[in-house]
Amino acid sequence: MGPYAEYLAERGYSQVAFWRKTFLVNEFSRWLEREGVPVDEITSGHEEEFLRDRARYRLPKGGDRIALSGVTDWLRQQGIVGDPVAMLDDMSDLDRIVLEYKSWLREDRGLASATIENYAGYVGRFLREVSGGSELRLASVRPGQITDYIRRLAPKDRTFAAAKHIVTALRSFFRFARYRDYILIDLAATVPSVAGWSMASIPRAMPAEQVRTLLTASKTWRTPSGLRNRAVLLLLARLGLRAKEVIRLELKDIDWNEGFLRVHGKGGVERLLPLPHDVGEAIAAYLEHGRPETPCRRVFVRSRAPFDGLKAHSDICQIVARAIMRAGIKPMSNGAHQLRHALAIDMLRAGASLTDIGQVLRHSSANATRRYAKVDLDALREVALPWPGALP
User: Which of 11, 21, 46, 242 is the catalytic position?
Assistant: First the structure.
């Protein structure tokens, strides 16, 4: 109990949260002792059983399940509780297969944690639908079920990229299932493709006047989270960083003397970017007056305990969406990437070449930059063919 209490204190929990979590752990410990369950054999099933038993004499609270799972995660990190893959017998067939698949993606394929969670989410939803709530029989899945699922689900309220992710995840899963002999035929080859065309879309960028309004409004934000959010917005709008690049930024990546920023981009490629004065000023203000004390070396961390680094693309998107709402802007999109697009379009209209834009945005291929040519209407008018005949 002592080491876990120290762990909670180090992560910056308030005194109320600290006592609530430690009290729950004490109750769970006594329950395990009463039920004769060794600590190294704890499973998620024991957590659920404890919470059901506890609900008979104590009013449940919304955060109890999350707090309890945090205990078992910590025990797993300390090597006290085994990896969940070693406890597959206590899970449903569906959960067991998805967990095995996630382990395969991590250990055999070497995918990033965010990608693994996305793939597992797509696969889990597919398996729940085809099983219909009954016992999962993976070997009985047929190509027609896959095609029907994609036909019904992929086009609904999804972009081409989102639909493509579903297809990619299912193909990956069926390769895993064939490799583990859960299926006897190559179902990966039967997953249909989603129609899409290169260069078909136009970049969805926030208008320049809205970007200026957003950045001007952020100057008044003085709370810790407000200082953090302003620094994030400036990195997105002034340097064109991707959400993941903002998340991966560490304290050691900032060279204050030389005025440079080391950016960890796609494919593990690192680039040095100049640090504009206003961006550096915003980051310094956050580090000095807004960033909580934490052993985490990421520049941007959560505003509430535990003070870990931001983890997912969605964290940055939420910051952007809330900032837009706070500034009173009504945009067409709330995503973080619209600020990167806005920078590219602003450069294009200022006379920068596509090559220059590609270098600033760190594109690995010229094709990724060519899409911005479609928003330069003046240049397109010069090369447009005359309309045949009279206009309607």
Answer: 242
